[in-house]
Design a protein that fits this description.
The structure is a single chain. It contains 11 helices and 12 strands. With 350 residues, the chain is of the alpha/beta class. The protein folds into 2 domains: 245 residues, 3-Layer(aba) Sandwich (Aspartate Aminotransferase, domain 2); 99 residues, Aspartate Aminotransferase, domain 1. The strands form 3 sheets. A 7-stranded mixed beta sheet has the order 1-9-8-7-4-2-3, sandwiched between helices. A 3-stranded antiparallel beta sheet has the order 10-11-12, with helices on one face. Strands 5-6 form a two-stranded antiparallel ribbon. It binds 4'-deoxy-4'-aminopyridoxal-5'-phosphate.
Length: 350
Amino acid sequence: MLPLPVLERVRADLPSLPGIGASALEVSHRGSWFEGVITETEANLRALLRIGDGHRVLFCQGGASMQFAMVPMNLLHGGAADHVVTGSWGARAVAEAARIGRTRVAWTNESESFVRTPLDEELLEALDPASDYVYLTMNETIQGVEYPGTPSVPNEVIVAADASSDFLSRPLDVARYGVLFAGAQKNAGPAGVTIAIVRDDVLERIPDGLPSMLDYRTYAEHGSLYNTPPVFAIYVVLLVTRWLRDEIGGLDAMAELDAAKAQLLYDAIDGHPEMYTGHAQPAARSRMNITFRLPSVDDETAFLAGAAAEDMVELRGHRSVGGIRASIYNAMPVEGVERLADFMRRFAAH
Ligand code: PMP
């Protein structure tokens, strides 16, 4: 979901932006209107996430999936990448990085079907401090497994993190990340733009000879305007950042709301253990994607049909894992989550 006020603003201004006389779908990326948009979007992201001067905010394309290749291309320096694989997206990322250079799966929970993130001490023990960088997925969208806080990685090790599905849902210790990237289409806006936040020391060490569009420096040196950026997508990200700032009150407030929403569903799961089994272990439960199973596939089919009859849709788990998945991103109102929790209680009692 995108916030309704954002969609309404987009709709009102779609044929013609006030004072511009052209649509956001039409304007030049070199014009002053878009210059203002990209400048303010970056400023708002910096304010919301408290991004310091040591990091650059880059607007890329190619989705988070392209970052799976860009990260190793830019960060490997003849050594290896240490990957922590906590779900399907982390598995994709390590497979892609292996096409570029040396990788090592330092820690995974795959044999237990990805039900948790590593404990701090497990992570410290698993990582090789000599690796070129450590790669993590902040929230595994398919399994519903999320790090409860900043993963504990030795300070001298560069951290690259995929934050696609929990970006802008809570404050982050951005300084700790060498690269933090997120496809926009969960919490930040529509598909088409991928935000990469890259630390200066990482930029300085990028090997020469990369194709221009796969080199973070191209984006940093040209203010993400080396080629035509996804103008409309960035414009919607701007509106979402204003909504977060003005309507929600920033990321601390967003985090509180998101935690409360997720708790409603986890309470419904835990309150009916005869009907619902949460996928993630409690300490690694995602606040964005609540994943659970019912006793049988038939029960799950009946659950989905009952929910759909009450206009609650898109609850089927990812095709690769089955079960039920309630994705409750930032823009999902608490009332929507309350309705689902209420349905879950009624379904369990029927
Ligand atoms: N990483 C995570 C955590 C995701 O949730 C997704 C998409 N659902 C991706 C990567 C892939 O993103 P994209 O489709 O933008 O390439």
